[in-house]
Prior knowledge:
With about 150 residues, the protein is α+β, with helices and mostly antiparallel strands. It has one domain (about 1-150): Beta Barrel (Porin), CATH 2.40.160. The chain is built from two helices and eight strands; from the N terminus they run αβββββββαβ. It has helices spanning about 1-20, 130-135; strands at about 30-35, 45-50, 55-60, 65-75, 80-90, 100-110, 115-125, 140-150. Strands 1-2-3-4-5-6-7-8 form an eight-stranded antiparallel beta barrel. A hairpin with a 4-residue loop joins β2 (about 45-50) and β3. The radius of gyration is 15 Å and the shape is elongated.
Amino acid sequence: MKKYLLVALLLAAFSVGAMAQREPSPKKCAISAGVLQGGGGLVGVDFEAMIGSHFSAQAGVGLLSFGVGVNYHFKPFINSSMVSLVYWHQGLGDSHTVGWVGPVYTFRAPKVFQFQIGMGYKANYGPAATSEMRKVPVGLMYSIGVYFPI
């Protein structure tokens, strides 16, 4: 647990330094794609739109997954890092395993690169959830990918 806290603090410090050098994007929407995006699918995409000066909403789909979230950006533009409250639904129909809800920190580099890390609490189980999955109430939520303001 101490390692995760240290990593989170280092990422936050790196993010603050990177934000000081970035150019604000005049665009109000972004598309992101990558590994474990779109609700934690193997690969996925998210669409995000600013709904206030610091707030945005996102929705995404992945390979057998989907997700939604509400985000608070540290700066009032789409290409800034953020914290989010998200729901990730992994698996569809008979392949549904688990639904996660929880806070996520998203680091966005000034251009293109982003990654997320957070902790999810199991909100629901599906028919494909194993007995081992049901034993652990929380899990690590993470993804890595690219984003493009549009």
